[in-house]
Specification:
This protein is mainly beta. The protein is built from 5 helices and 37 strands. It has a 22-stranded antiparallel β-barrel. The chain has a 5-stranded mixed beta sheet with strand order 3-8-9-6-7. A two-stranded antiparallel sheet has the order 1-2. The mean pLDDT is 91.
């Protein structure tokens, strides 16, 4: 008898694509899920590095931890909605990065690819990245009321030490958790052995959580604290080594969640999240005037929904979700205590209502959804305000044609209101060049057509194995695309009439218990239809092959991951300083873990990333001439985990 196969990531339950629990591989929404085990296996320093193998996802920016940002289907920055435990993360300030959390504290990462404004509002043109932090149940072993988790590791890149310590307790209906993690590394090196300047970090991240679950009610109060102390260029996600600053990056996220679920009341399943998210960057320039800058953003919001399950005619089943969202952003930038025009003092208030009905009629599943968003944006001084609103519809149909075959089609619209900085930025960009505000910018709007197929098989090569596959083709047309133009003396943002990104993505996952394999692939094409030029942000075609073997009787798992990236030769010719071709490359990672049968509370991990010390550059941060360094070279890593 073959050992039972583990559930693949396409079997994982997610709420990101529909706001209701759904198996990832059984919906008309392309959501990739990384669970706790996947996150620890990657042992990455950033969320961007953790999700790098998801089809359609690429990393943008120089290899400095907090500055790297993900792209989804060629779109990044404000075109992706980031959420941590339901709290929006709207921070974006000129090349400084957006995500400030150690992956060690995460229990799950969901990546929704493609427009998601129907459920998440402005910014979800490219997609949504939803992160959930660890809970007491992740630390407390079954049958116990107390639990602890200790993990320490070392990586040769930057001589980095990292660690995680977490403890949890449960008393009756109450449970509590406290955790702290962090790492400390020197400058990294690239494949040829060059130092990657200003890539050293000292990161500390803490998490506290209190849960109370009386009966069918659930209350969850959590706080996340992040601090990174580093010396880094102001434009940290570029290859520059100019305008260096001594920076402290801090973020605090506090959330209060409430939900109610009673099997006898299927029409009542409310979920409410209230949150406070504060990001503060304090910088002291190391040259010139040695100016002191602050960059401050506070977001307060509430997100509420109720899901009702019912049948109208007896042959149909409805899952109706109705919700509302409100949040307020307040940002302020200073230099030596005075207003800094590069990060203008401004605010916005956003109110939204949304509705989604998922109808199951036999083997046919229909989804119709609509969201209304109203924005009110303003800045200090005499600049005009900006009030916009938008309807975002979505329809999809999935049909279980055969037990193993589910084709689907969908159409969705999404939008992105211009950011406060895009509207009101002013002051010096670089010596001899100044920002020109453009408060007349129009929102970006997208129209996405998608078709795909979900396949699932069991007992393919042996009893109990599982094979899951998803193939998706899409075309996303974006009107009023906002681009930043750098002229000789001025820099200004403007609307491009039409841009289009189309592509194909594929995921295949197989698990037979003792061995496993996966393939992910994507090929994208982006065009500025107004100027008849390729879009600069669209990454090269990529395929990732991975697999491994489990020596079940010995508690040993070995595996490898091989990433193959094609040459990118579709770049615009009308953007000065942009290289016209980025060579392709291949990266091989290997890893192993051992959980001794005589000490199951111990786990040992080793791995080598970029085994052959490949010298490569990602197409998403090319320039001409190329920067004096490549991406990170070979990295040997190891970790020890103790649970009790």
């Amino acid at each position: 008898m073959a050992p039972p196969a583990a559930a693949t990531p396409l079997d994982a339950v997610t709420t990101t694509g529909t706001r209701t629990p759904t198996v990832s591989g059984d919906s008309a929404v392309p959501v990739s899920v990384l669970r706790r085990g996947d996150i620890l296996d990657r042992d990455a320093r950033s969320v961007s590095e953790t999700i790098r193998d998801v089809p359609g996802v690429e990393i943008s920016g120089a290899p400095r931890t907090t500055a790297m940002e993900p792209l989804i289907r060629g779109l990044g920055s404000d075109r992706i909605v980031f959420r941590v435990d339901g709290a929006r993360n709207n921070f974006n300030a000129g090349h400084r990065g957006r995500m400030f959390i150690d992956p060690e504290l995460l229990r799950q990462i969901d990546v929704l690819r493609g427009p998601g404004s129907t459920l998440y509002g402005s910014g979800a043109i490219g997609g949504v990245i939803a992160m959930r932090t660890i809970e007491p149940d992740d630390i407390i072993q079954p049958g116990n009321d107390l639990g602890a988790y200790l993990r320490g590791g070392y990586q040769s890149q930057g001589s980095m030490w990292r660690g995680l310590a977490a403890g949890a307790a449960r008393v009756d209906d109450f449970a509590a958790l406290a955790a702290i993690s962090g790492f400390n590394n020197q400058n990294l090196t690239d494949g040829p052995g060059n130092t990657i300047p200003y890539s050293a970090d000292r990161v500390a991240n803490g998490l506290a959580r209190l849960q109370w679950r009386p009966g069918n009610h659930s209350f969850d109060l959590s706080g996340i604290m992040f601090r990174d102390s580093h010396v880094i260029p102001i434009a940290a996600n570029t290859a520059t080594t100019q305008s260096v600053t001594d920076r402290i990056t801090e973020q605090q996220v506090y959330t209060l969640r409430y939900s109610y679920a009673d099997p006898d009341l299927p029409w009542l399943n409310p979920q409410i999240v209230a949150y406070h998210n504060h990001v503060l960057l304090q910088e002291r320039r190391q040259t010139g005037t040695r100016a002191r800058d602050t960059t401050d953003l506070t977001t307060n919001g509430i997100d509420a929904q109720n899901t009702s399950r019912f049948a109208l005619f007896g042959w149909d089943n409805h899952t109706l979700t109705v919700g509302t969202e409100f949040y307020r952003d307040e940002q302020e930038g200073t230099q030596n205590g005075r207003p800094r025009a590069q990060f203008p003092s401004a605010s916005q208030e956003v109110f939204a209502v949304f509705l989604q009905d998922q109808v199951a009629i036999g083997d046919l599943t229909l989804v119709g959804a609509l969201r209304y968003d109203a924005f009110s944006q303003s800045a200090a001084g005499n600049l005009p305000g900006n009030d916009v609103d938008r309807l975002s519809p979505k329809v999809s149909a999935a049909y279980q044609l055969l037990p193993w075959l589910q084709p689907y089609v969908s159409y969705a619209e999404a939008f992105r209101a211009p950011s406060l900085t895009e509207l009101y930025v002013a002051g010096q960009h670089f010596p001899g060049n100044v920002f020109v505000p453009n408060p007349t910018l129009q929102p970006e709007t997208s129209h996405n057509i998608e078709a795909g197929v979900n396949l699932r098989f069991s007992d393919v090569l042996r009893d109990g194995d599982r094979l899951r596959m998803r193939v998706t083709a899409f075309r996303n047309t974006i009107d009023n695309f906002i681009e930043q133009l750098v002229f000789t003396r001025t820099t200004v943002s403007r609307n491009v009439r039409t841009a289009r990104i189309s592509g194909v993505e594929a995921e295949l996952q197989y698990d037979a218990g003792s061995w496993f394999a996966a393939v992910s692939a994507s090929a994208l094409r982006g065009d500025n239809l107004t100027d008849d030029q390729p879009l600069a942000s669209v990454p090269a075609a990529r395929t990732t092959l991975s697999g491994g073997y489990r020596f079940l009787e010995d508690g040993v798992v070995v595996g490898a991951r091989w990433q193959l990236v094609a040459t990118q030769d579709r770049n615009p010719t009308n953007i000065p300083g942009l290289a016209q071709e980025t060579p392709g490359y291949g990266l091989l990672d290997i890893y192993a873990s051992w959980r001794p049968t005589f000490a199951p509370n111990l786990r040992f991990d080793v791995g080598v990333d970029n085994l052959f010390d490949q010298a490569y550059r990602r197409s998403t941060w090319n320039s001409s001439p190329p920067p004096p360094f490549y991406e990170t070279g070979r990295n040997i890593r190891g970790a020890v985990t103790l649970t009790f």
